[in-house]
């Protein structure tokens, strides 16, 4: 029972981390239809930048802000210099962003080396909490805080996209960009802000994930793949779908590692295959 409960909590917190990464990806890829395969590199870059700042100033929240800001600025540059010039050219976007991710990975390896880094969380969320209704079982406080933060960000993004004027502009621009532009809205500015927020969320997730786990070369590929699977399973452009998909993938990964480690990685791809076969638009996605 203890293993089951702790494995479930690990799956929920891993799903929360996957959601933080995939929420930015679903804004850029699922909603705006921009194929940004450098999203994983933005995650890792945000983690490294955040770790460097936090290590210098010894203040974790500044590291979080630095990770978000650095990737948001880089994301804005990608939107203005690349995606604006390649609208609707999915293959070109794919090839260019793969090249960017490789270059960024090599630059990060050159600058930060191949060592593994990890943040020290603030004292207020460090340590462990006693789980209710258990015989003195404890769980890391930071992981609980990660779960709460992911839920708050998910609700905030859903409200932003569905209950605000800017969110309505974003969804209208995706469905009919020409009509939105004809109504006097600066579509390129709206899309640039959206891309910047999506990239910033990747950097934010890098700092948060680096605090929960670690920062090392190769993490960019892992989280890019996880984001792709989460968005496909949950549904393109759906924040709710990204949350559901992230929880499913996180729980499946942790249950697999706990109860059948030899085949643990297979379960994620079985879920992906089942989703593509039975509901190709995703659990919460709309039919084309």
From TrEMBL:
User: How is the protein disposed in the membrane?
Assistant: Multi-pass membrane protein
Cite the Pfam families for this sequence: BPD_transp_2 (PF02653)
- Subcellular compartments: Cell membrane
Q: Which InterPro entries match?
A: ABC_transp_permease, BCAA_transport_permease
Q: Which UniProt keywords apply?
A: Amino-acid transport, Cell membrane, Membrane, Transmembrane, Transmembrane helix, Transport
Could you tell me the superkingdom of the organism this chain comes from?
Answer: Bacteria
Q: What is its main location?
A: membrane
Transmembrane regions: 12-30, 37-54, 60-83, 95-113, 142-161, 190-217, 223-249, 256-278
* Family the entry assigns: Belongs to the binding-protein-dependent transport system permease family. LivHM subfamily.
What is this protein's record name?
Branched-chain amino acid transport system permease protein
